[in-house]
Amino acid sequence: MQRSFIAKNPSVLIFFACLALFTLAVTVLSEGFGVGLASTSFVKTLGKTLCLCLIAVAMDLIWGFTGILSLGHFAFFGLGGYMIGMWLMYERTRLIVVESLSQTEIPPTPSEVVDAIGNQIFGVVGSSEFPMIWAFADSLVLQLALVVLVPGLLALVFGWLAFRSRVTGVYLSILTQAMTLALALYLFQNDSGLRGNNGLSGLQNLPGVTASQDFVSVWFLWASAGALGLGYALAAWAVSGKFGSVVRGIRDNEARVRFLGYSVETYKLVIFVLTACLAAIAGALYYPQAGIINPAEMAPIASVYLAVWVAIGGRGRLYGAVIGAAFVSLLSTWFTGGQAPDIPLGFYTIKWVDWWLVLLGLSFVAVTLFAPKGMGGLIDLWTRRKSPNRHGLDLGPDEGALREQEASK
Amino acid sequence: MKRLYLLGLAALLCCVMAAAQASDIQPILQEHKQIIAKSARKTIAPAIDAIAKSGSPQAQTVLETWAAKAMWMRKSDGVFFAGEKAEDKQYRLFDFDSGEVAGTYPKADLKQIKPNSGIRAMIGTALVQFQLIDPDAARRQAALTSIQRDPEVRFLAPLRASIEGEPDVKLLAQKRRLERLLTISFDKNTEARVNAIEEMSGDLGVDLRATLNPLVATTRDVALGEVPSGLNIADILAPGTEFFSRTDAYDLLVIKSLAQPKVTANDIRNALAANIDGGRVAGIPVARLDNDTARHRAYDILAKAGQAPARVTTDDVDAALASHVFFESYYEPSPDVTTAANASLTAIGLRVGLNQTLDLALDALSLTSIYFLAAIGLAITFGVMGVINMAHGEFIMMGAYTGYVVQRIIPDHTLSIIVAIPLAFVVTFTAGVAMERLVIRWLYARPLETLLATFGISIALQQLAKNIFGTQARPLTAPEWLNGAFTMNDVVSISYIRIAIFILALIFLGVFLFIMKRTRLGLETRAVTQNSRMAASMGINPGRVNMLTFGLGSGIAGVAGVAIGLFAKVTSELGSDYIVQSFMTVVVGGVGNIWGTLAGAAMIGFLQKGIEWLNPSNTLAAQTYMIVFIIIFIQFRPRGIIALKGRAAGD
Amino acid sequence: MSTLLEVSGVSVSFDGFRAINNLSFRIGEAELRAVIGPNGAGKTTFMDIVTGKTKPDEGRVIWGEKSISLLKMNEAKIAQAGVGRKFQKPTVFEDQTVQENLLMALKKPRSWLSVLAYKPSTTDLDQTAALAQEIGLLDALKRNSGELSHGQKQWLEIGMLLAQEPRLLLVDEPAAGMTPQEREHTTDLLLEAAKTRAVVVVEHDMEFVRRLNCKVTVLHEGSVLAEGSLDHVTSNQEVIDVYLGR
After folding, report:
1. What pTM, to 2 d.p., does this model score?
2. Which CATH number fits domain C3-244: 2.40.50.100, 3.40.50.300, 3.20.20.80, 3.40.50.720?
3. Is C165 on the interface with A (CB under 8 A)?
4. For labelling alongside A72, which of B172, B242, B308, B462 has CA 20 to 30 A away?
5. pLDDT (tens digit, 9 = 90+) per residue, B38-87?
6. Where do the ABC transporter domain residues begin and end (chain C) (predicted)?
7. How many domains does chain B have?
8. pLDDT band at B573 (very low <50, low <70, confident <90, very high)
9. DSSP of B376-415
């Protein structure tokens, strides 16, 4: 019985092997380190996809395991991106400013440098003053800490308020969506201090790094793969033991867990904050690869897409979330990027750029209706994993403890 | 046409006053023959005055003819005529006094009097007194409007003179009001002005505020030692307050050339750069000038050597500020008038505030009805079936597009709206029923998955609309009779479309209550809501009830779409603009109760307007704060304002 | 015998309907008590109040030798204090194994950090095995509890309750839907449990109550109608009226 964590969870090992193999393959094919079969922009796409897989793992933890359909995790993702973006933008602008000011006859004073940076960054929103929230932008360490702290704190405050008042189910989903909308709207303002709808840009350039994007893209791929591996392991470890038992219990029957003496609210809050931090880390790795971040990224719709990925991949199993996020986001890139061939019907030509969303929406409905286990269900077929014979309907994780008596009503 | 009319009028007057030779205009014209012929702006005033004050019935005609460049002088004797072009460069002349044709002359024999624009403006002013008593009411109105637009002191007297004998009641009121306003602005007698101000105090007209505001306009000034006498002082300013910082004060001194300009950091840098000498400035190596202390030291050495103006020290600033007195003075010299105007503006401000509150309440009410319309369908499906329909916004959009398509087929706007409303209901009802049968029915036990499946439908529908109608906004035009606004005064007004939407919301409330309380469907729906299994065992088919309820909710969304499309742009994103607010409305109001939805809509509508009022420049922030408020509100009433126990309540 | 739980003068109403009306109830340590009463007598609401699910409008609920008021505590705190509850419907976590279910219930620190760091020790595993033995599920330890029969789920739930080591057990209709043999087993489990702790059994079935052979409290319209041995209360005219109609 006393087996190690890895021995109990062979899927983690398989996942690590696949991830390592994938990273190695991309490195070998990349322009920077390998034969150059995979273009730098494609490497970036793959790196970004790994980040999306990480946030999908977070989403699976909160939704698939704890049963809270959060429609707000992209807000944390975006906040993480903003936090790292602030340092990237500040530092890069500082280097440029110092470079250009060194051409002048008189060496610049520190305050002149800061003013010039402020002018460069906030010129687009008609300001040159640094807002309070940029106080730590000159320090990589502090800003890296903020990547986790700011979304974590937001999640803590929001989660505490929401869970304390026992808001559950669709109410909670709507509330998280509202939170995302409020945050996005707030950031859209020019005086929010984060450049309004211009967002932060030029994030792909690492300050002080002279290597070309060919190399930087692979570094980020490694970093993303590492983060995904660690995040996956952390999530798998958390849900494998008694903690996992409790959160799955919360998902299936919250009241029962409460009467067992567990403080359901605290557990939910812990998971909410933990997943928010995971999402933020994913975001902090994603946006330097995307190069630009603006409030539109945090629109409520993004978080709903996240739920779509996890649902298509298969909830309640971490690899399902990863498969779903990778599959749907890459397919989406392929279709909307105009690479998919158009289908001429004679009287009408189906352009996938226009029709992809229709296809996605409908296939999503189909998955919900016909394959609630998502693509992870296919792996069940393959491993012939035996699911409990529920005699009645499969109610899914969100509806009580799969009570067959009620299921057959 | 105008010419003919004038001539006819002139002729008529001529006949009546044939005997009144004394008031003939020609002698007066002859008296000022030289200056009229010279037509110079500087010298023309007496001539215009004389004509205007002549009391001759022809004075207006003459001035108008003159301003229209149709006055001619016969070179042979210098007599003035009204001229009209005849054939072959010939001009037909009319006598001003008799109105009769005085003959036709070649152009060479005549001199056209061409007033320049300056003179024409003077003539125009002179004409006002005539236009104010013109028999044609439209022209009197035009004259009043022109005075309102551009009030000047010279209109005061003719306006006063014209009040008596004004037959039209409306015009009389306008004239009286305008006379008061001009009195406030221009009367020479201070007492009369103060009286006029007090008389009109509390009036809400924008024109009154426009008249009063310049009276209390101030300018900032500075004087050495004491405040100069003879000025109408509004306030003595102490430098260093929030509204008048020490920097402001010193800048004012610099502007008034009472102090040396400050040497800015930029000036210092430029001066240093200009004085680099072998890698050193004033003996200090350039490389060490990367901080303010070093720069100041170097600059001070330069200044001592006379190579740059000395820096203004804090002591200099202190001394300069201490020796001067700063004040704000009114442009208006009379203290009585400014006091009265201030008092009046305060009184007006209070009333304007009250009325703005009323206006805000009306705005909020109309927003409430919009949210109510948008949310009611959602509330029905959520309340009765426990189903969150994320595609609800797309049903609203479908309704709006239905309206657009109907308008393309039926061009008459009134008729098309009458057709579009039921058609939108039918279209979205059908769509809703189809969706319920095909998708939602299978997911009743899984509310979160319903949410996601309907979201899938939502993105598909939205993209479909984009593919069909394109991304640009489509117009859905309201009928003519809905244009315009109901105006109570200059502050409170509400557009007819919004009133119509309010009425529509009321109708929906009534229809919904009727269906729920008086019909079989309502009875069955209530039964299914409270206990679906019990209802089923009593012979009610819950499937059918659910289907119809969902259809009803969707149909109402379609009608709401037509209403919303009337004032918003019809785009594929129309629905998603309203969906979050609709959810908020339902969640805040409490599920499954129409009054809860109403309360939720009212709360969100009023809240949004209230926050916008506190921070009018920033609607984005207003929405942010509203959502934050709602999140906090949910803390205290997790089940909404009006909570319902039953199937949807969750426990 | 010292008092473990004392409920006094408790009333609660829902939308004007008085579900509990000035109810007073006390139970000592190591006592078995059956609570009977017709539908709507307030049996379940009574349990809701004790476990913290429902807050009463008035009255006191005093717990233990330190006389703590349970009204200020939430469900988890009350459960940690030693009140275990079994629901009417078997509610076990169906996609987890019997062992996981029992481990979750085992009396161990409930804070999230200690739960996260928790590794089942040999004693814990032995304890779950012993419990499984007691409820007759030793063979099913590794099976998903969703695969169990209805009666087995009921036992598992009782086993989870025992694993919690509560000082007071509230059991809601444990015998519903069970075969006669299963009932007997259930009776044994309850009787065994009542030797070391207080057990309150809410039951409809008189036959089952008779087998428990304990003091009986009759609830009617939210307050106590009669209390005593089963024979005593069944001979009470009021109780007969309530049960048989008037």
Report:
1. 0.81
2. 3.40.50.300
3. no
4. B462
5. 888 888 888 888 887 777 777 888 888 888 888 888 888 888 888 888 77
6. 5-246
7. 4
8. confident
9. HHHHHHHHHH----TTHHHHHHHHHHHHHHHHHH---HHH
